């Protein structure tokens, strides 16, 4: 089995507080892998260790079988496109400026904008855009990098349902290795090839959507009655 990115036994502490304890997550090449769990369970913290925003205390992260510590920042950016949960911009860069931070090649910038159908915003100052439009711009920046791996933290934040489905459809069909933190269990069920469930900073379970989001698992992790059902021609859906 070919894994593009692996988190092995990741431990993270803030002071004396354990944020992550021996967390293991692997994203298979060409698949869309989801990470779900309650607020504050460590999902976003795990993602941030990839890029050095947080320094883990134990474990390692492997990209194409090589420790991420052996890659330079430039090499890491070529390997992985990243979209944070929130993208705050202090300076009023244009959309073109933002996307070109992922790739200086003009063709790559416009291709990414065209793919996401936001080329009409190219000259707009980022501060003038809605939260949803900004999210699309930063996803375009990740696409412009032409990386084989894209990591997204809550990619559907600020997007209306039409754009949520558009983005996830696009990512699903992209052929890239996608690892995403997502809170919407219905969307996770519909789009993820496999799902890791995190609880209290630890691996709780892993499997295909119908396995990871079984009725028992959902209740034990989220405290709600819900499960994945197979709705005939519509495929899998998460129902409460």
Automatic annotation (TrEMBL):
SUPFAM superfamilies assigned: P-loop containing nucleoside triphosphate hydrolases
Keyword Repeat: no
GO molecular function, one term: ATP binding
UniProt keywords, alphabetically: ATP-binding, Nucleotide-binding, Transport
InterPro entries: AAA+_ATPase, ABC_transporter-like_ATP-bd, ABC_transporter-like_CS, P-loop_NTPase
Residue ranges constituting the ABC transporter domain according to the UniProt record: 5-225
SMART domains: AAA
PANTHER family membership: ABC TRANSPORTER ATP-BINDING PROTEIN, HEMIN IMPORT ATP-BINDING PROTEIN HMUV
Protein name per the record: ABC transporter ATP-binding protein
